[in-house]
Design brief:
alpha/beta; eight-stranded mixed barrel; five-stranded antiparallel sheet; 21 strands; elongated
């Protein structure tokens, strides 16, 4: 503080208290004749008085005796006084040396202190230690004492108050209380550099008047460390935006202000579209630079009172406050801000000499006061953002409570699916596959969920959840194990020993690096014949990574398995890739079979699929066959294998085995044995 230079009164010891080598002692030791004269005269006076008292007169004998006595007394007194005087001088000199040594030592300690210490009175500074000179950039104590307190402070302090006014207040407090402690902005005398300091003022009495001792500690480095710790705790290191912790604090403040003023606010959840692809292909350095630029662009599109935060990765949150009391207008304002952000983030990014592009998907959740919790509102904005992605990305969506309800239902369903796998609530249903003479060829196994309270749940309701959650991998393995176990059981029955089972394999399941090993292990553990197991794959799955798919299929073919291409014709069929795949069968999708007898286009597609299958030496089977007309058309054009309600619905294994008996009996009656 400019008015609190620091010092100790240790350097101002009162030398008047030190006896000198002269004075009375010098008089006794350097003027012995005065001592002798005084002793003689005094003794003679005493003797004369005694003579008058005893004899009534002064006699020569008394005077002579007195004179001799006085000389003896004077000699003894002189010697004694000289010895005493010399001893006193020696002691005084020793005390003076000791006091000087004490003062020098104390001054050394005073100057050795790491804290800047100084003294001032109403006239200004009058002493300081060496640390003070270093802290304030002065060459000597004399130079420092020429400085006025105002020379050592900037015009204003951090709080905005001018230094002179605030310094007077601190000094008055120190004098009143005797002690005062505070932080202050000081300024060096040599280069006028401002630094933060911790100041302690002590009021002292010196020679009957009040002085101030000030201690100043430069805490600039400590403040920098505190700032770094604060930055690490509350800000994202890459973008320097608030992190989740500070975002939560800002949201709490925004909620309180909204509740007090009845103003609407908005939370925006932004996610960069396909950022992972850019990060993986262009490198993390490019990705980081892009994220920093995104932060700059977002900050340029909001007001000073709003918050832009980064949650991590490519996820950002923007909090807009004070959008007004009208809900519709507040939502309109939020949408306009979001649109400005979307437009800004759509602009090209110049990074390391190359142009890059990205777009945002933005979800918005409105809030008023404390109606919803912070976690709920963040979740709502996140849900809206995913809706924006589902709508095609690079778009804006507001939170829809109905959508949230659907998401919560889905989350509950996912939890129940995990319990279903754990408690064996899944079942396999079997739908028969036959040839044109109604001979059973096998069946396709279909997953069913027997819920303990809700009963049988449609696959259309839970299969997508299994796919999206990744649970399709363990559930798919369970299906494969159950199907192989059933094949092993059928091998002991003449009616079923030649049947094949077709098992659907999901894309996530097939892409597992150990999928081939898992299939091999299941076959070995179950004892099923590999030739009786057929895996059904979809077009989109096999064509996504054609080389890897072909390699994996060939490994499985070596085990003795066969493959059927499911839903053929519904995807992006490519004959160039199709002929490379080690397939055994193509399955005509039910969507083409449904109107085959009435729609020329479907009829033409089916005929083309059959012709292509013949050309590739693949057998072909049609699913969804429900009428005799559909079966007759297919059979007439070269498709002799069928699956559909015309021959049997998906049923549990016990019912399937019972129906096999009926099918065999009807076939024998209609076509005879063989």
């Amino acid at each position: 503080m400019s008015t609190d230079p620091i010092a100790s009164d240790s350097g101002n010891i009162n030398r008047a208290a030190i006896p000198s080598a002269g004075g009375d002692v010098d008089f006794l030791t350097t003027r012995p004749k005065w001592v002798v004269a005084g002793s003689v005269l005094g003794t003679l006076l005493i003797v004369s008085l005694c003579s008058l008292f005893f004899l009534g007169r002064i006699t020569t004998d008394y005077l002579l005796t007195g004179l001799i006595t006085s000389l003896i007394v004077a000699s003894i007194a002189t010697r004694t006084l000289i010895r005493i005087g010399r001893h006193a001088v020696a002691v005084a000199r020793e005390n003076a040396v000791a006091l000087q040594q004490f003062e020098d030592k104390y001054r050394q300690l005073f100057d050795a202190s790491s804290e800047a210490v100084m003294l001032l009175d109403e006239r200004g500074f009058f002493d300081c230690n060496k640390a003070t000179l270093e802290v304030f950039g002065c060459a000597s104590v004399e130079e420092f004492c020429t400085k006025r307190p105002s020379d050592l402070s900037p015009p204003q302090q951090a709080c905005g108050t001018d230094s002179a006014t605030l310094a007077s207040q601190h000094i008055a407090t120190a004098i009143t209380r005797g002690h005062h402690h505070f932080e202050w902005l000081h300024r060096r005398a040599d280069n006028e550099q401002v630094f933060q300091a911790e100041v302690i003022l002590n009021a002292l009495d010196k020679d009957g008047k009040k002085v101030l001792q000030a201690k100043v500690l430069d805490i600039s480095e400590r403040k920098r460390y505190e700032q770094q710790i604060h930055q690490l705790a509350f800000y994202d290191l890459l973008t320097e935006l608030p992190n989740r912790r500070l975002l939560i604090d800002r949201l709490q403040q925004a909620f309180s202000v909204s509740a007090r003023n009845q103003q609407h606010g908005a939370i925006m959840f932004l996610d960069l579209d396909h950022f992972k692809t850019l990060n993986d292909t262009k490198g993390h350095e490019v990705g980081d630079l892009l994220l920093k630029e995104v932060a700059v662009r977002l900050l340029s599109r909001v007001h000073d009172g709003d918050t832009v935060a980064r949650l991590g990765g490519d996820e950002f949150v923007v909090v807009l406050e004070s959008l007004g009391g009208d809900a519709a207008r507040a939502a309109d304002q939020a949408e306009r801000v979001a649109e400005r952000m979307r437009a800004a983030l759509n602009q090209p990014y110049q990074i390391k000499g190359r142009i890059h592009h990205t777009t945002p998907s933005i979800g918005i959740a409105m809030f008023t006061g404390l109606r919803d919790s912070i976690d709920d509102l963040l979740k709502y904005a996140d849900v809206a953002m995913y809706q924006a992605k589902s709508a095609g990305r690079n778009t804006i969506r507001f939170y829809d409570p109905e959508m949230q309800s659907a998401i919560e239902v889905r989350a509950d369903l996912e939890t129940e699916l995990r319990l279903a796998l754990e408690h064996n609530y899944f079942q396999l249903y079997y739908q028969i596959q036959v040839d044109s003479r109604h001979r059973p060829l096998g069946a396709e196994v279909l997953l069913r969920w027997q819920h303990p309270q809700r009963g049988l749940i449609s696959p259309a309701e839970f299969i997508p959840v299994l796919e999206e959650s990744g649970m399709i991998v363990p559930v798919g393995l369970w299906v494969l194990q159950a199907a192989c176990a059933q094949l092993r059981l059928w091998q002991g029955d003449a009616l079923t020993r030649e049947l094949t089972l077709a098992v659907n394999v999901s894309a996530k399941q097939f892409r597992q690096s150990d999928f081939v090993a898992r299939v091999q292990r299941v076959l070995q553990e179950s004892g099923a014949k590999p030739s009786h197991l057929k895996l059904e794959l979809t077009e989109s799955m096999v064509l996504e990574n054609i080389d890897g798919t072909i390699a994996k299929m060939r490994e499985l073919k070596l085990l003795g398995l066969s493959f059927s291409l499911d839903d053929f014709g519904t995807g992006y069929s490519s004959l160039q890739y199709l002929k490379q795949l080690p397939l055994d069968q193509i399955k005509i999708d039910r969507s083409f079979v449904r109107d085959i007898a009435s729609d020329p286009n479907d009829a033409a597609i089916v005929q083309a699929i059959i012709a292509m299958s013949d050309a590739l030496a693949l057998n072909v089977i049609a699913e969804g066959v429900e009428t005799d007309a559909q079966r007759d058309f297919l059979d007439a054009h070269g498709c002799h294998f069928f699956q559909g309600f015309l021959f049997g619905k998906p049923v549990p294994v016990t019912q399937f085995e019972a129906e096999l008996q009926d099918v065999e009996q009807r076939r024998v009656v209609q076509f005879g044995r063989g």
